[in-house]
């Protein structure tokens, strides 16, 4: 699902000034100016007066500072036991998902169900806890189905709700779908704790997350731990497909020291003409969310990211990007992700400066200071 980037709150959360944003293909521009002295190709853009330069803090190196933005365009939820048939159900995601999250939630099972003609389909769910189980009941309005449901039952030990319609066609519904089609809210189903972030890319992007997960040692360790230590939890997988990356630029018309003219133009043009490779983009997305969520089963990137000695960032530093932004969105599948220090949200943004914000301007600092 597409949604407005959290970076857009820069405009609402900076009461001392206004920000103007406009998109031109690959590039999203943020413009700050004391008066409207912009290049003639943008004659219709009006700019508001801002605070004077001495109050702006660290200076920009270039008139046009540029950040790399990656955002998800689709996501799917599945479970380890469902990986084998995943490609048939979601061929696009199976082919193009290179980033995946291993999450966990309380173990959920269907323990009773029946059709009530006057109400709909009654379902009783059992949610496991460390000390036992709790039960929740809901009613699914039958009107949401296109065809008349003739029978319902538990399937595979309660892991699925089995529905048969008037054509005698049977389908298995996992419990997480219930939160999408009922008026009840189930945080136990909707809130997924991120415990591992991984990637699969391979040569020329030929390897997908599905290929990796089918024989993944960390996933097997998670499943073993849940069986013997955290028996009340179960693993859930999120697979993400990212949209084409964008460049987010800040044009600072207030700076008296920023590099301008041909040098600034050449720097910006180099970013357009030398895009990062798909392997670099995938690793940036993986590392960004490892640093952001701090998942317990990850080792690398948790404590120190980004740094200049990381191989996948060598071109980002050589080309002199200002920062990196990576976004995920799970609102379209009615779930939220969280970690120990990240509250449950349907949209998360991980952003990092590539340079010391005390020495070089960053609008991330403006956003964070107003949160």
Polypeptide structure, described:
This protein is of the alpha+beta class. It contains eleven helices and 17 strands. Among the domains are: 76-104 and 200-241, no CATH class; 108-189, no CATH class. The strands form three sheets. Strands 1, 2, 3, 4, 11, 12, 13, 14, 15, 16 and 17 form an eleven-stranded mixed sheet that branches. It has a three-stranded antiparallel sheet with strand order 5-6-7, with no helix packed on it. A three-stranded antiparallel sheet has the order 8-9-10, with no helix packed on it. The protein is elongated and about 75 Å long.
How is the topology of this model organized?
Elements lengths: L8 H4 L7 E5 L2 E6 L31 E15 L7 H4 L1 H6 L2 E8 L1 E9 L3 E10 L2 E9 L8 E7 L4 E6 L4 E4 L4 H4 L5 H4 E9 L9 H5 L3 H12 L4 E10 L3 E7 L8 H13 L4 H16 L20 H5 L4 E7 L6 E4 L2 E4 L1 E7 L9 H7 L2
Parallel strand pairs: 2-13, 3-14, 11-15
Antiparallel strand pairs: 1-2, 3-12, 3-13, 4-11, 4-12, 5-6, 6-7, 8-9, 9-10, 14-17, 15-16
List its traits:
alpha+beta, elongated, disordered N terminus
Span between termini: 24 Å
Q: Total helix count?
A: 11
N-to-C series of helices and strands: HEEEHHEEEEEEEHHEHHEEHHHEEEEH
- Radius of gyration equals 24 Å
What is the strand tally?
A: 17
Largest sheet entry: 11 strands, mixed
Shape: elongated
Structural class based on helices, strands and sheet pairing? alpha+beta
Strand content: 25-35%
